[in-house]
Amino acid sequence: MKILVLNSGSSSIKYRLFDMTAKTVPASGVLEKIGEAQSRLTHHTRNRKAEMEEIVTAEPVADHRQGFQRIGAVLSESGAVQDNKELFGIGHRVVHGGEEFKEPTLIDKKVVDTIRRLIPLAPLHNPANLLGIEVAMQSAPQVPQVAVFDTAFHQSIPVQAFRYAIPQDLYEAHHVRRYGFHGTSHYYVAKQAATLMQRPLKTLNLISLHLGNGASATAVKGGISIDTSMGMTPLEGLIMGTRCGDIDPAIIFYLKRKTGLARDAVESILNKESGLKGICGVNDMRQIEELARNGNSNAQLAIAMVCYRIKKYIGAYCSVLGRLDALVFTAGIGEKSPLIRARSCQGLAHLGIEVDADKNNRKSKEAFEIQTESSTVKILVIPTNEELEIAEQTLMCIQKLPRPE
Ligand code: ADP
Fold it and tell me: Measured between alpha carbons, how far is 11 from 294 in angstroms, rounded to an integer?
């Protein structure tokens, strides 16, 4: 039973093929620089010895339509999918589902129109996601397609946490509220945490920290998101690679007045030139750790600020959860940076959070625990797998469909 997961960006399409019966990934890849003179397709597939092999090809791919055909061709050439008929379904990552989508949804014309209507809420992401959907629907019309939304998991957040303290009509007329993102990842690691702890998810209070280029914290009570750090857009909350996270909103008006910068320029600074990059000029945490070790004070400050912000959110979410069973670190930095994990938890013994230095320094591709014996809260490092979660949700959504007579 094969499911293809697509994550369509403005100039790229990421894909991963799952065999849900064998629980394997027969192929995956990314097509980048769509529309540029030389597009690049990196395709991973199993060779005759069942080893993963990387094939890189460079050729012009004019648009997403050609891109999807190219991916179809390479999946067929490598024997992963001979014919679209072999696909049980296609799962699409969609960034913003607004208040309309609370769960994975089978895509039809009405769904496409609703995702289009939500473009003003996610002008950078939804148009590209939509393009991927439309192209895939045209290229494989007989395959059921499912939209899995980054925002859906957070639709359970109660009103006192999702409303902003601004006039009510701005919420009602313009949908200004907290939506939250990375929902697929937070949900996936919450389920993994429950498996690891051998306890039903329904009984657990968790804080998950998705720390990648984009970063967010979520308070998960009984498997349900009750608060998250990203807001109406992914700009709010933790300090990220190039996004500022929480700032005083008045800074925007001050900057416009003081510098004469246009609205778009300020928006671009806060999204693309801030965060780690704004503090120390670099947004790759590996490089920042290296610079900090070599005495670069801006890199040291960036690490201090990132960890301080994470710590503040841990404290806040401990308060809203009441009791904390586990703290989960995931995504690039969360999974691979012992330094950030340790510094974010430093001084939290009074909350029952204590990192064991040796366990924390372990390297593993599997999930592992890093708390001390005396820590009452489990501290878990869990590799995220958003694509697998999308594949599973796609499968469940299609299986719920009434069978044809
Ligand atoms: P994205 O949001 O793009 O999916 P990732 O989850 O891949 O991001 O995370 C990217 C971040 O993880 C980068 O800041 C990168 O430097 C960081 N990272 C990856 N490996 C390590 C490592 N070994 N140590 C510290 N940071 C790492």
Answer: 36
